[in-house]
Amino acid sequence: MVLVTGGAGYIGSHTIVLLIEACYEVVIFDNFSNSSRESIYRVEKLVNQKIDLVEGDIRNGDDLQKVFDSYKIDSVIHFAGLKAVGESVEKPLKYYDNNVNGTRVLCEVMRENGCKSIVFSSSATVYGDPHTVPILENFPLSATNPYGRSKLFVEEILRDLYLSDNEWKIVLLRYFNPVGAHESGTIGEDPNGIPNNLMPFIAQTAVGKRESLSVFGDDYDTPDGTGVRDYIHVVDLADAHVKALDNINSFDEVMSINIGTGNGYSVLDMVKAFEEASLKKVPYVIAKRRAGDIASCYANPSYAKEVLGWEATHSIKEMCEDTWRWQSNNPNGY
Ligand code: NAD
Ligand code: UD1
User: Fold this and answer.
1) Closest CA to 198 of 53, 319, 306, 102
2) How remote is the CA of residue 161 from the centroid of ligand 2, in Å?
3) Rounded to whole angstroms, what are the CA distances from 160 to 22, 72, 125, 244, 251?
4) Ligand lying nearest the CA atom of residue 28
């Protein structure tokens, strides 16, 4: 059985669907700090079965032990974490407690129960401001904010854990920019308040919830001057987790793997693609650069193909169409 921490969240809910379709048995562990039970009900409808759930906090070992007492857990996919960069700058201790300490407690309980197999949600943010693109896994690591540092620290902790006991099977998936939604339009990203990330902001502008998009800078060293990123469909990303689990027992080192498409799109490319997919106007204004942003960030994803047999298959058009289906069917989220 697979324990999915944070399984009620955006990426977790999509991954649960694919895990069940691939015949994995799953149990979700979530404290609903950034999600709701509704996402799980909707996943249950999609897969046509009940999903086991334990409500609890990864920082609480007793909560976690309940899962290990009730289920035979072979592996963990660890999504649970806080992810708002701005908030992490204001409240760094909250991020280190939740993301770093939470992961430490999780690993402790896993070890006590003889479960030593984990897939961790890392991020391209661990490359800091890369010296060149596309980004390879062996590029130097750094962080520019507490959120990014919490990911980097967890990576280091997991590497130390492996050094102390190489029975551990550890896969660090470094996601680029997850966007999109399940093609049914019933599950998707449901940010609290004003979205910080580009795609949900564009979607909410197209649906009329926001007046206009602020494009953060048009004087970067990129083809049209706006920031370039590697947007990846959340269903492709979910599939990478299934492939990571399929292969995890064959690995004899800690695996760090980029999960991106290898294509870079600018902010204005995304606006245009979204307008075409939604047939709605996305008004925008050019604003000043956002502190901490970099010009270009996209993956060389060839290692994922080599070691997981995984590659992204969804186009930008599908990312926009699926986001739009979710957003227009659920203008107020869950
Ligand atoms: P999300 O907020 O939608 O999902 C995270 C889930 O974890 C939520 O359901 C939340 O309630 C739960 N959670 C948080 N803290 C918890 C705790 N202490 N105990 C139990 N549950 C807890 O976020 P997401 O976009 O699905 O991201 C999943 C993971 O992927 C996160 O670790 C995030 O940092 C990482 N990641 C996300 C992105 C992105 O752009 N979405 C990019 C790179 C990495
Ligand atoms: C951000 C985080 C990163 C995190 C990732 C996924 C920062 C500095 N980085 O990455 O750590 O892993 O989200 O959650 O916050 N943009 C606009 N207008 C907007 C929003 C964004 O022009 O309203 C631009 C940005 O300047 C950037 C691009 O769109 O060029 C993508 O931004 P975003 O979606 O926030 O992702 P990242 O900045 O790549």
Assistant:
1) 319
2) 31
3) 31, 26, 20, 20, 16
4) 1
Around ligand 1, the residues with Cβ closer than 6 Å are: 5-6, 8-12, 30-35, 57-59, 79-83, 98, 102, 121, 123, 175, 178
Structure tokens at 157: 């902790």
Question: Does some domain include residue 51?
Answer: yes
- Sign of CA pseudo-dihedral 7, 144, 267, 140: negative
Q: Give the CA count within 13 Å in the CB-facing half-sphere of 93.
A: 0
Number of compact structural domains in the chain: 1
Give the range of the structural domain holding residue 100, as residue numbers without chain letter: 2-182+230-260
Q: For the purposes of burial, counting CB atoms within 10 Å of the CB of 167, is it exposed (0-12), middle (13-18) or buried (19 or more)?
A: exposed
- Identity of the residue numbered 226: T
Structural domain contains residue 60: yes
What letters, b where the CB count within 10 A reaches 16 and e where it falls short, cover 316-331?
bebbbbbbbbbbeebe
pLDDT band at 277; cut points 50, 70, 90? very high
Query: Is 252 inside a domain boundary?
Result: yes
Residue 300 lies in a domain: no
Quote the tokens at residue 203.
């979607």
Cβ within 8 Å of residue 150, ≥6 positions away = 81, 88, 95, 96, 99, 100
This prediction has a pTM of 0.98
In 3D space, the residue among 29, 28, 30 whose CA is nearest the CA of residue 20 turns out to be 28
What is the pLDDT, as a whole number, of residue 302?
98
Ligand 2 centroid from CA 319, angstroms: 16
Residue 11: predicted pLDDT = 98
| Nearest-10 crossing angle of helices 267-278, 316-329 | 60
3-state secondary structure of 163: helix
Ligand at shortest distance from the CA of 36:
1
Residue 166's pLDDT band (boundaries 50, 70, 90)?
very high
Q: Is-contact 254 304, C-beta < 8 A?
A: no
